[in-house]
Amino acid sequence: MGHLNFHAILGVGVLIVCGALISVGWVPHEAVSEQVSQTVRDNPASFRSSYVYYTGWRTPTTGSGGGYSSGK
Amino acid sequence: MISASCPSCSAPVAFKHASALATICPSCESTVVRSGADVKSLGKVAKFARDLSPLQVGASGAVGKRRFEVIGAIRKGRPGVRWTEWFLSFSDGGVGWLAEANAMWELYDKPPVPAPGAAMADPDDKITVGDETWIVREREVARVLAAEGSLPFPVVGGEEGEYVDLWAPAEGLVGTLDAADDPPMLWRGQPVELADLKLEGVRAFEGWSDSVLVSRQGPEITGTRALRCPNCSGAITLRAPGAAQKIVCQYCSSELGIEDKGDASQAILIREAEKRLWKPPLELGAKAALEGVPWQVIGAMERSVTAYGQEYPWVEHLLFNPYRGYRYLVVADGHWSLVKPMPLPPKGARVDSMTIRHGGEKFQHFQAGSARVKKVVGEFTWEVSQGDVASTDDYVAPPKMLSVERTAEETAWSEGVYLPAEQVWAAFGTKANAQPGGSPKGVAPHQPNPYGALAFTRAMVQGGVLFAAGLALLMLSNLVTANQRVAEATWSVDPVLSEQVMLTQEFTLPESKRRNLRLLVGSTVTSSEGIVHAALLNLDTGEAYLIDDKGSQNYSSTLRDVSPGRYVARLELARPAGSTAITGRQVGLKVIRDPGSPMLVWIPLGFAPLSLLFYFFGRSAFETKRWANSDHAPES
To answer: Are the C-beta atoms of residues B333 and B442 closer than 8 Å to each other?
Structure first.
C-alpha cells in the first residue's frame, strides 16, 4: 500500500512540475555554441566548427559518444 | 399441559407436553412419572446447578416459523465432559432437543429415524441411513447428573446409559442415538447459533448483555465464583463456572481441577506449582468487545511448533461470553486472530488434504506441525497441561484460516479470522500495556494482502487519473506553445562529393518570451555512407549552435533561449574518403519555434501504467513473503 501512496504522491508531484515547466516554456538545451567571425557570417557555407566532433567524417558509433568537448 | 401433585411433597407439578411422561418436581427434585391419570415418584435427581448457560426452562424461541418453548432439561456427563440436553415443545405439537456442550449448540427438531446397526458401531465406523453416510464420532457411557422440568421419559439421578454420537460432514448434520433403544433411533440435527433462534427469556448475567438474545426481567445471576488455590491459598475467580474443567493458578501456577457441588465450585489440586509464573499478553479477566461482541479473557496458553531447529511460539487466549460461547484470541509475532471452534469438519476434508473448500472459499494448505503446550494460566473447558502435544495443519484463504488439531482422543477444527493489531490494541490495550503482543513482524499466514481488490481499483483509478492528467498536460502544451515551423528544406545528395554543405533560406526569429527552437534532421544516407552535421548560425551576432547528432542519421535537438535575429541552418554531409558513389539519397531539415517538450508530457503519461506495475509487484512480493514461511515455500 505504501508503494501506491508513494507512487500517487510522486505522480502528482511530477504532474505539477511538468505542468509548471510546460507553462514557463522550459525545454532541455541540447546544443553547444561557439562564436564565428564576420567572414563566416557573410558566407555561412564556409563555417567549420572548431569542435572536431561537429564537422567532417568519423567512424559510425552506436551511441551518442564523443561528447561536446571531445577533440576540441 | 397436564397438572398433578407431587407424590412426595404434594407440590403442584406440570407435564407441559402430551409426550412428557416425566417431570421433575420443582420443590423436592423428585422425578414424577405419569401413567394415565396416576402419578408416582421415582426418587430424586440432583438439583440443576447454575452454570453460565444462557438457556433455562421457560425460555422460548423459533426455528424458522416454528416457535418452541424449553420445557425440560437433562444434564449428563462422563469424566472430563459435561453437557445439557434441553427438551423443546414446538407450537405445531412436535418435540425436539437442543444439545449444549462447551457453549456449542446442536438442534434436533425432527422426529428420529431408525438406524439399524448403528448402536453397535465403533468410532470412525461409517453407517448408511437412507442416502446419508454417517461417521461415528464417539461411543460412550453417560451418567445423568441433574434434571429439571418436563421430560419425555423418566430419569433417575446417577442413571447410566450408552450413547453413540455421529456426524455427516457432507450433509452438515450431526446425530445421536441411545444405544439401548431397539431398534436404535437416530436423531438428526444440525449445529446452530443461539443468536439464530430468536430466543426470549434467556438468563440475565451480571455484567453481560446481548443485542440479539432477550433476557427475561429479573435479578441478574452472578457470573463468577470465588475459589481458593489449595496450594497457595490465592484467591481465584472462576469466570466460566459449570463449563471450566481445569484452572491453572495465576499466583503459583499449580494445576487445579474444579468440582461443582450444586451452585458452588471447589478447586482440587492436580499438580503442584512448578514456580514458573507466566503473564500472557492479555490479562486474565480483561474484558473488551471485538467485532461488536464483548469477550472476557479467562485463560491463556503458550504453544509452539519447532521446524528446522527453530521454535515458533504463539499465545492462545481463551475468551468467554455466556451468550456467545468461547473463542480463541491468538497472537503470533504480533499478528492477531479471532478463532472459533467449528462444530463440524469442513466438507471433504481429509488427513492429507492440500486444499479445502469451505464457505464458498478455497483454503490452501499452509503448514503442518506438532504443537506443544509450553505455558498455561487461567481456566479451560478441557484438561489442558503443559507438555500436551497435538498435530496441527493450517489452511489459509486470507483473511481466514482453517486449523485442525489431532490427538489420539479427538480431532478438532477451528476457523480463524485475521484481526489488525490496532483493533486488538484499541479493545484490550491498557495504560500500562497500550500495545499488547507488540508490533506485527513479517507476514502472517492469513494476513490480508494489502494489494487486494481495493488496491487494484485504487491503482486503476490512480493510473486513470494520471493518464487523464497527462492528456491534460498534452492539451496545455499544445495551447501554450507556438509550435511554428520557421524553416524547412530538403536536398538531394551529390553521389560522389566527400563533403557537401547545405544552407536553408535565411529566417528571422522574432522577439518573444518563448525562445526555444527544435531542429529536426532527417536523411536517407546510412551511417556507413556518411554523417550529417547540423548547425544554426545567428547572422547578427555570430553565435553558432552545434547540434549533437546522437549517433543517428535522423535526430532532433532542442535549443533553449535562442536570441531573436536572422538565422540560417546549415547541414554538412561528410563522407569517408574514397567511398563509392551513392545515388538517390536525400537530407532534410526542419526548424520549429517554441516547440514545447514532448518529454514533459510523456513522463506523466508513463506514470499511468506504473500504477498497475506497482500494484502487481507489491502483491507478488507480499505473497512471496507469506509463502516463504510455509511448507510450500518456493525453492530458492
So the answer is: yes
d(CA B590, CA B570): 11
Contact indicator for B194, B323 with CB cutoff of 8 Å: yes
B536/A contact by beta carbon, under 8 A? yes
Residue B328 has a CB neighbour count (10 Å cut-off) of: 20
d(CA B480, CA B483): 9
Can you give the residue ranges of every domain in chain B?
2-197, 278-427, 453-478+600-627, 482-595
Q: Does domain B482-595 have CATH number 2.60.120.380?
A: yes
Q: A61 pLDDT band (50/70/90 cuts)?
A: low
With contact defined as beta carbons under 8 Å apart, do B312 and B305 qualify? yes
Which of A4, A10, A51 lies nearest to residue B615, judging by beta carbons? A4
Grade residue A5 by pLDDT with cuts at 50, 70 and 90: low
| Residues of chain B contacting residue A25, judged by C-beta atoms under 8 Å apart | 480-481, 513-514, 516, 594, 596
- Collect all residues of chain A within an 8 Å Cβ-Cβ radius of residue B451: 1, 4
Q: Which runs of consecutive H residues, i.e. helices, occur in B481-540?
A: none
pLDDT value, residue A4: 52
Indicate the residue of A14, A54, A61 with minimum beta-carbon distance to B546.
Answer: A54
Q: How many helices (H) and strands (E) does chain B have?
A: 3, 42
Q: Does any CB of chain B come closer than 8 Å to the CB of residue A35? A: yes
**Burial class, A40, CB count within 10 angstroms (exposed 0-12 / middle 13-18 / buried 19+):** middle
Peptide bond into B79 cis (omega under 30): no
**Selection from B470, B600, B472 nearest residue A18 by Cα:** B600
Cα of A52 to nearest chain B Cα, Å: 11
B173-178 and B517-523 strand pairing: unpaired
CA distance B586 to chain A (A): 17
pTM of the entire structure? 0.74
Q: Mean pLDDT of successive 10-residue segments in chain B (636 residues)?
A: 85 86 87 84 76 87 94 89 92 93 91 83 85 88 91 89 89 88 89 91 85 69 84 88 83 85 78 77 94 93 88 94 93 96 84 86 93 92 85 95 88 94 93 90 95 84 84 86 93 93 95 91 92 94 91 88 94 90 94 85 79 87 92 76
**Distance (Å, rounded) from C-alpha B599 to C-alpha B171?**
65
Integer Cα distance of B636 and B628 in angstroms: 10
| Contact predicate A70/A52, CB 8 Å | yes
Q: Which residue has the cell 514456580?
A: B275
As a whole number of angstroms, the distance between CA B221 and CA B142 comes to: 28
Residues B297, B163: Cα–Cα separation, whole Å: 34
How many whole angstroms separate alpha carbon B105 and alpha carbon B63?
13
Q: Which three cell numbers stand for residue B499?
A: 563533403
Q: How far apart are CA B279 and CA B248, in angstroms?
A: 12
In this structure, which amino acid lies at residue B118? A
Query: Are the C-beta atoms of A71 and A56 separated by less than 8 Å?
Result: no
Q: How many residues does chain B have?
A: 636
Long-range contacts, stretch B285-293, CB < 8 angstroms, 24+ apart:
B285/B237, B285/B239, B286/B428, B286/B430, B287/B207, B288/B427, B288/B428, B289/B427, B290/B319, B290/B329, B290/B338, B290/B419, B290/B423, B290/B424, B290/B427, B291/B338, B292/B211, B293/B321, B293/B324
Amino acid at B226: A
Cα gap B234→B231, rounded to integer Å: 8
* Residue with cell string 482422543: B409
Written as one string, the DSSP assignment of B427-470 is HH--SS-SSTT-S--S--TTPPPSSSHHHHHHHHHHHHHHHHHH
Interface confidence, given as ipTM, is 0.76
- For B319, the grid coordinates are 475468551
**Three-state secondary-structure class, residue A48:** coil
